[in-house]
Amino acid sequence: MPRKARRAQLLEAALEVFVAQGYHSAAMDDIAERAGVSKPVLYQHFPGKLELYLALLDEACDTIISNARAALGSTDDNKLRVAATITVFYDYVAAETGAFRLVFESDLNNEPAVRGHVERVTQECAAMIADVIQDDTGLPAEASHLLAVSLVGMAQVSARYWLNDSSSITRSDAANLIAGLAWRGIRGYPLTD
Questions:
Q1: CB of 49 within 8 A of CB of 23?
Q2: DSSP code of residue 190
Q3: Thinking of the domain 1-47, which architecture would CATH place it in?
Q4: Statement: the pTM of the whole predicted model exceeds 0.70
Q5: Separation CA 94–CA 67 (nearest Å)
Q6: 69-121 pLDDT, tens per residue?
Q7: How far is CA 99 from the centre of its chain?
Q8: DSSP labels for 79-105?
Q9: Is the distance from CB of 58 to CB of 71 less than 8 angstroms?
Q10: Hey, what CATH class is 59-186 in?
Q11: For the chain, what are the domain ranges?
């Protein structure tokens, strides 16, 4: 199997194991077995469990940041931007892969490299949103950034809560509910001319 295809296969197997077991309980043996390869083959691609986890975390973080960027760029209508961005987080946590658990529920947050990756999601998403807020309202950069971090936090925390809640609120209805709350707050800041 070509190196790139093998790497993708190993990452897919590792994602399944890490999501199911968490970092600390997952073993390289389990990942190799899930991928249908020997442990030495796994180590040819990843020197250790942490490096494998960080490679998965990179992909997971890049996905949510890219999706948020696409949502913000999908329209110039700020109400629709808010809804699209909130929906990104709901769609992400609802994805069958469970990759969001690596980003938002990692059992390895004490590891500086992991914490840095996780914080990158909030920082980069908030930076994109802050730019829109500052451009549209004329608020200072610091105020725009604080509002943006708050919106990212609201989307992320509420999406995770929704996923674990046993209510009958659909994903779409939940995302729309939170988008409505966010829009009611953020629209109160007047647009600049």
A1: yes
A2: P
A3: Orthogonal Bundle (1.10)
A4: yes
A5: 14
A6: 999 999 999 999 999 999 999 999 998 888 888 888 888 888 888 889 889 99
A7: 8
A8: HHHHHHHHHHHHHHHHSTT-THHHHHS
A9: no
A10: mainly alpha
A11: 1-47, 59-186
